[in-house]
Design brief:
By secondary structure, the chain is an alpha/beta fold. The chain has one domain: Rossmann fold. Strands 2-1-3-4-5 form a five-stranded mixed beta sheet, with helices on one face. Helix 2 crosses helix 3.
Length: 122
Amino acid sequence: MVKKIAWISRHDMTMDQVADLRRIYGSNVVIEKHDITAHSYRDVLEASKDADIMAVVLPPNILADLVNPQNNEKPVIRAISSREKTGKFVLNQATGQNEEEYRFVHGGWEQVEKIEIIVKKL
């Protein structure tokens, strides 16, 4: 059975991320990228209406609304990554300084079940 995954991000999914999704969901995975600026969870729902799973990069407030069972029943996942030094230096165009270069390393996927935001007005 084909699993359709909506990738909600401005960035392309890495080969490691795709391979890991195939490990999790099987080789019959179709990934459809949606390069959108989501203003609410409704934008994400609209973009992913034909998908079985939503793989997202979203701010916490939109993510919290998206995983609320009153708003959505589809699984929502996000990539886990870490930053590692490459050992190289690159020129920072904004400051004119040479800075250490970093790369993102895929560390897996997690399913987001609930986000709780607690705030206090200052």
